[in-house]
Amino acid sequence: MLNLEGRVFMSNLDDPFRIAEREIEKLKKSTSVVIVDFHAEATSEKIALAWYVDGKASAVIGTHTHVQTADERVLPGGTAFITDVGMTGPTDSVIGVKKEQAITRFLYQTTHRFEIPRGPVHLCAVLIDIEEKTGKANSIERIHIKS
Ligand SMILES: [Fe+2]
């Protein structure tokens, strides 16, 4: 498992593309199955990284936006990918935060304490089938369960 953070609309860190290449190569010495969690804001950066490591990583799972995308697929090289897996948490919220608090923050541009609302919840996930010998993904299935 490799966790990377993007640079677009986020604080400037080291290059996730070059780090991915280097770290996947290292992990491949001890396992054929390498899952990449790419914590990034920009969909383009997440898609580009998935193409960059297609055939090297078993899966690239985008995170951070909290909103599940409907673009799951296995790329030609055998890397399963989804731009964002989504969140597990309160449905009547703004990405997990009480909606009133999030709206106040946008209205007044001030910082406020965020709280998690009670009520209906949903679970977002993906189910990925990977060949253990080759590390290639056979399929990726998007899961979104509402309470
Ligand atoms: Fe985040």
Kindly describe this structure.
The protein has 147 residues and is α/β, with parallel strands linked by helices. The chain has a domain at 2-86 and 130-146: Purple Acid Phosphatase, chain A, domain 2 (4-Layer Sandwich), CATH 3.60.21. Helix content is 22%, strand content 31%. A five-stranded mixed β-sheet has the order 1-2-3-5-4, covered by helices on one side. It is globular and about 50 Å long. The model has no long low-confidence stretch (mean pLDDT 96). Bound molecules: fe (ii) ion. The site of fe (ii) ion has 2 residues, from loops.
Brief account:
The protein is of the alpha/beta class and 147 residues long.
Corresponding CATH superfamily of the domain at 2-86 and 130-146: Metallo-dependent phosphatases
CATH names the topology of the domain at 2-86 and 130-146 as Purple Acid Phosphatase, chain A, domain 2
What share of the residues does DSSP label as strand, in percent?
Answer: 25-35%
Shape: globular
The secondary structure category is: alpha/beta
- What's the CATH architecture of the domain at 2-86 and 130-146? 4-Layer Sandwich
Question: Which sequence of SSEs, written as H and E, runs from N to C?
Answer: EHEHEEEEEEHEE
Named once each, the bound ligands are: fe (ii) ion
Regions with little confidence, pLDDT below 50 for 5+ residues: none
End-to-end separation: 29 Å
Query: Which sequence of strands runs across the widest sheet?
Result: 1-2-3-5-4
Number of DSSP helical runs: 3
- C-alpha-based Rg, rounded: 17 Å
Number of strands: 10
Q: Helical amount among residues, as a percent range? A: 10-25%
CATH class of the domain at 2-86 and 130-146: Alpha Beta
